[in-house]
Design a protein that fits this description.
Blueprint: H1 28-50, H2 66-79, E1 82-91, E2 94-103, E3 106-112, E4 117-123, E5 126-130, H3 133-136, H4 143-152, E6 156-158, H5 166-171, H6 175-182, E7 189-197, E8 200-207, E9 214-218, E10 225-229, E11 236-240, E12 256-258
Parallel strand pairs: 6-12
Antiparallel strand pairs: 1-2, 1-11, 2-3, 3-4, 4-5, 5-6, 7-8, 8-9, 9-10, 10-11
Length: 268
Amino acid sequence: MRGSAPVTSSAPAAPAAPAAPAAPAVPAHRRTALAVVLCAGLTVALTACAGEDPDKGTNGVGKLTASQIEKKALAAAGAADAVRLTGKLVSKGGTYTLNMQLSGVGGTGSVTSKQNTFALLRIGDELFLKADAGFWKDEKADDESDQAADKLGGKYVKVPEDDPTYQQLRGFTEKKTLLDGMLSLHGKINKGDRDTVGGVRTVQIMGGKGEGGALDVSLKGTPYPLRVARGGGGGTVTLADWGKSFTLEAPPEDDTVDYGGELPRSSG
């Protein structure tokens, strides 16, 4: 009809979609704790991947080549005023257990062979030998030998320089002689494992795979050799008290015998 407003029809409105549920609130202190745990886990993972630096807190010698380590160790040993040697030396002459303090002017200590233990004291060129009466007894000799043994037993006997045993016995008291013989490695020099000697961390260098000898060199302070294993089963010796001074005193006159001539034969 004219004049009437147009009639429009409309579909009913679609219902509104339900709102997504809100995420539960996380307390601030728990968010902080979670962050700490994640950071700690990441740190552990990175540390595990990187590994701990084996030379941290050391003198850095472990980073050098085997030849460089050997050079530094020998130089340190040569420059030291004193050293103590304990352990066994095996040679063609037998097996000797040493407990010697050595310096540039002499040495003192004890040597044990298969048969006996005897003390040695050297001051300059004066060499003294001290052993019990059993050391001086020669089973193949006569009663005169027994009398000499009783006289020499327990005394410091001055060894004549022209006696056949003088040089052999003096060798046990010579710092340079002993160290030159013990610390020499034979064959190609290689690096070995890390270890500890007397509680001190060390790095090992070897002649070949060890058949040419092995040295454990200190990773703390001056790179002194702290242990030597001689090649060919030549014994193992520990080196300590590097540079630690000690006193050498001549024995009292009433405790000394100057035999004068060649020493008598002995069981030692």
